[in-house]
From TrEMBL:
A Gene Ontology molecular function term of the record: methyltransferase activity
Enzyme superclass (EC): transferase
UniProt superkingdom: Bacteria
EC id: 2.1.1.-
Taxon lineage: Bacteria, Bacillati, Actinomycetota, Actinomycetes, Streptosporangiales
GO biological process: methylation
Protein name: Class I SAM-dependent methyltransferase
Keywords assigned: Methyltransferase, Transferase
Source organism: Actinomadura yumaensis
InterPro entries: SAM-dependent_MTases_sf (IPR029063)
C-alpha cells in the first residue's frame, strides 16, 4: 500500500533530474586545478588555529575566515602558483571540503568561466584567499581574519578589482580558484555561519534552502508514489555526492557518510542554517537597515503624494491630447509606497508616467536602488545579465567602427564598460552616472574617468570629445529625453555614433502581462518610446540610423520577472526600511506564503523564457539603435 497514487513516471523524472543536476555541478567543478604542496607535511590548511601562519616576502596578503589558518608551506606554494599565472586573487579550496560546503561551492562557482567572465561574481569555498597587496590597497581592504559574512562580501569585492590580463585562449582576468591539499577538522562544519556566508556572497538563503527543500520533496514524492521505482530516485539522490565529486580535485572528507546519510543530514542542514545565531556581519547589516529606517521616517511622515507633479493633459513627446490610461502600478522593485499611472499617447504612441515624479520623488525612489542597501542586489543582477547583453552591445558598434573614446551615460557601476573592453581592448571607456557606483567603477578600473553630474550640465566639459556615446535604458529614466539627445549630439565628434537601448512599449508580451510585465519598471521609467519616435528624433538632430536590433537586444526574463513583480506586489519584504509601519508577524507570514507559491513557478517560467518566449512572433522586450552623426 502506498501513501500516494501510483505515478510510474515520477520516479523516472526525479531520477533523471537528480542525474542531470549532478552532471551539471560536476562540470562546474571539473576545471579546478590543484596547488602542488608536495613534501610540505600534508596538512597545509586547518580550521582550529593550531598552526601558525607562514610569512615570507611574497607580494601577497592572506585573508581567511575566522579560525582558518594557512601553514607557511601552503601559503608560499599558493603565492608561487598565483605569481606564475599572473593572478592577483586566488581563492583556496580545501581538497577535503565537507560535502555540503562542496555542494554550495559547485552551485555558486562556474570554474570554467571564472577567469574569463568580465563581471563574474567573486565566489569561493569560504576559507582562505591569497591577494596581491596592491589590489588590497585599491579595494580598501586589509589582510587578516574576518567574520564569515564579511569574508564572503570581500570575496565578491576582490574579484571586481582583478585586472584584465592577456591569455593564450583570449581575454582573462587575474582571479581564480585552486584546490589545496589539506586536512580540515570537524570544526569546519558546513553550517557554521552558513547563512551569513551566503548573504555575504549575495546568495539568497531563502532561495538556497527552498530549492533544496523542493528537490528533497520531489525525491520523497517519488519514493512514496511507487514502491518499485521510488527507491531508485532515493538511491540516485544519495549517490549524487559520488557523481559530483569522485575523480575531481575536490575530495570531501565525509563523502561516504554524506552520501549514505544524505536523506537524514539534509533536513538537519536546513535547520542549522535557518536557526544559527546571527553573526557580526548580520548584526552590522541589521544596524544599516535600522539607520535607513530612521532616515526614511521624515519622508514617510509627510506622505508620498507630494512626490508627484500635476497631471498633464498632453503628450510630452508630440503634444497630442489624445491620451489613454495604460496601467496603474506600485513600486515593482523596492515596494516603496506610492501608485503610478502610465498613459499612452494616441497620436505618436509615446508611453509615459502621468502624473510624473518630481526631482525629489526620483531621488526618493532611486535611494537604495543601485547604491546603499540595494548595491549588492543591483550588482548581482547586473552580473547575471552581464556577458550576453553587454557583449552584444559592444559587438554591434565594433561591426561599424573601432572607437578611440567611448562615454557610457547612465553607466551605473560600470558593468557594461568592463565587458566592452574585452571586445574593444584599445578603446578608452568613460562613465557618467548620478549614483555613487560610478566612483566605485573608477576605483576598480572599469572606467577610465567617472563623471557624477547630470549629462545635460556637462556639455562645456565634454563637447566633441567622444567617438561613441551609449545610453542603455537611460533615456526613459530622465525627465526630458529630448534634451538628453541634444546633449549626445554635442558631445559626439562629427562622424561619431550614438548607441541607444530601450525597453519596447510595443512588446506583445508586455501587453498581455499588463502591470506585472517587469519592463514597465515603475516608477523608474518615466518614458517608454516606440522605436519609430526615436528614429525621427535622431533624424531631426542630424543622425543617420545605421543599425537596428530587436530580437538580439532582448533582455530575457519576461516571465521570471513577472513572477518576481507579482510576488513583490502581493507579499513585499516585511523588513524593508521604507515600509510605513514596522514588520508584523502577519507580514512575515504573507511573505513566506508568497515565496512558497512563487518558488515552484520560477523553474517553469525560466524554461519558458528560454525556450518558448523567443519563438513568440512580434517585438521583443527591448530594441537597440546605432546612429551616426553627420559630418560637419
Amino acid at each position: 500500500m502506498t501513501w500516494l497514487p501510483a505515478l510510474p513516471a515520477l520516479p523516472v523524472l526525479v531520477t533523471a533530474g537528480v542525474a542531470l543536476h549532478a552532471f551539471r555541478l560536476r562540470r562546474r567543478l571539473a576545471p579546478l586545478r590543484r596547488v602542488d604542496v608536495a613534501g610540505r607535511g600534508g596538512e597545509p590548511l586547518c580550521w582550529d588555529g593550531t598552526r601558525a601562519a607562514g610569512g615570507g616576502d611574497e607580494p601577497y596578503g592572506l585573508i581567511t575566515v575566522d579560525g582558518a589558518v594557512l601553514s607557511g608551506p601552503a601559503r608560499r606554494a599558493a603565492a608561487a602558483y598565483a605569481r606564475e599565472r599572473g593572478l592577483q586573487v586566488l581563492d583556496l579550496v580545501p581538497a577535503d571540503l565537507p560535502v555540503d560546503r562542496a555542494f554550495d561551492l559547485a552551485r555558486t562557482v562556474d570554474a570554467a568561466a571564472y577567469r574569463t567572465d568580465p563581471v563574474a561574481r567573486g565566489r569561493g569555498a569560504g576559507f582562505a584567499t591569497i591577494v596581491d597587496v596592491g589590489l588590497l590597497e585599491r579595494a580598501g581592504a586589509r589582510a587578516g581574519a574576518l567574520d564569515a559574512g564579511e569574508y564572503a562580501a570581500l570575496t565578491v569585492r576582490l574579484r571586481q578589482y582583478a585586472e584584465q590580463v592577456p591569455d593564450a585562449d583570449g581575454t582573462a582576468f587575474a582571479a581564480d580558484l585552486a584546490v589545496v591539499p589539506c586536512h580540515t577538522t570537524p570544526r569546519a562544519g558546513h553550517c557554521r555561519a552558513r547563512a551569513a556566508w551566503l548573504r555575504g556572497l549575495g546568495v539568497s538563503v531563502a532561495r538556497t534552502v527552498g530549492g533544496s527543500m523542493l528537490g528533497y520533496a520531489a525525491v520523497l514524492a517519488a519514493l512514496l508514489s511507487d514502491p518499485a521505482w521510488g527507491p531508485v530516485a532515493a538511491l540516485a539522490y544519495c549517490a549524487a555526492p559520488y557523481a559530483v565529486f569522485a575523480g575531481t580535485p575536490v575530495s570531501p572528507r565525509d563523502l561516504h557518510s554524506g552520501a549514505l546519510l544524505r536523506l537524514v543530514r539534509t533536513p538537519w542542514t536546513w535547520w542549522r542554517t535557518l536557526t544559527g545565531p546571527p553573526s557580526a556581519y548580520d548584526r552590522r547589516r541589521a544596524e544599516r537597515v535600522e539607520r535607513a529606517r530612521r532616515a526614511y521616517r521624515p519622508d514617510l511622515a509627510q506622505g508620498v503624494l507630494r512626490f508627484l507633479e500635476p497631471r498633464r493633459d498632453d503628450c510630452p513627446w508630440c503634444g497630442s491630447r489624445t491620451l489613454r490610461k495604460l496601467l496603474t502600478s506600485g513600486d515593482v522593485v523596492q515596494a516603496k509606497p506610492g501608485r503610478f499611472t502610465v498613459e499612452r499617447c494616441g497620436g505618436c504612441g509615446h508611453v509615459f508616467q502621468n502624473p510624473r515624479l518630481t526631482e525629489a520623488g526620483l531621488a526618493f525612489h532611486h535611494r537604495d536602488l543601485s547604491d546603499g542597501l540595494g548595491a549588492e542586489e543591483f550588482e548581482r543582477l547586473a552580473a547575471a545579465r552581464g556577458g550576453r547583453v553587454h557583449r552584444a552591445r559592444a559587438e554591434l558598434v565594433a561591426g561599424h567602427l573601432t572607437p578611440r573614446t567611448w562615454l557610457d551615460v547612465g553607466a551605473g557601476h560600470g558593468h557594461f564598460c568592463r565587458t566592452a573592453r574585452t571586445v574593444l581592448p584599445g578603446t578608452a571607456f568613460d562613465g557618467l552616472d548620478l549614483g555613487a557606483g560610478i566612483g566605485e567603477a573608477a576605483r576598480r578600473g572599469w572606467v577610465r574617468r567617472a563623471h557624477r553630474r547630470p549629462f545635460t550640465e556637462m556639455l562645456d566639459d565634454l563637447a566633441g570629445r567622444y567617438d561613441v556615446v551609449s545610453m542603455h535604458h537611460y533615456l526613459g529614466r530622465r525627465p526630458d529625453p529630448q534634451a538628453e539627445l541634444d546633449a549626445a549630439a554635442k558631445v559626439l565628434r562629427p562622424g561619431g555614433h550614438l548607441l541607444i537601448e530601450l525597453p519596447d512599449p510595443g512588446s506583445r508580451l508586455g501587453r498581455r502581462l499588463g502591470r506585472f510585465w517587469p519592463y514597465w519598471l515603475q516608477p523608474q521609467h518615466l518614458h517608454l518610446m516606440p522605436m519609430g519616435n526615436v528614429d525621427k528624433a535622431l533624424a531631426a538632430r542630424g543622425f543617420r540610423v545605421v543599425a537596428r536590433e530587436r530580437r538580439r537586444a532582448g533582455q530575457g526574463g519576461d516571465l521570471v520577472g513577472t513572477v518576481a513583480v507579482a510576488l513583490n506586489a502581493v507579499a513585499p519584504p516585511p523588513e524593508r526600511p521604507w515600509s510605513v509601519r514596522p514588520p508584523r508577524p502577519a507580514d512575515r507570514a504573507r511573505r513566506a506564503a508568497g515565496l512558497a507559491v512563487a518558488a515552484p513557478l520560477l523553474l517553469p517560467a525560466l524554461l519558458l523564457d528560454r525556450l518558448l518566449v523567443p519563438l513568440v512572433p512580434g517585438t521583443s522586450n527591448a530594441y537597440r539603435i546605432l546612429a551616426r552623426k553627420d559630418e560637419g
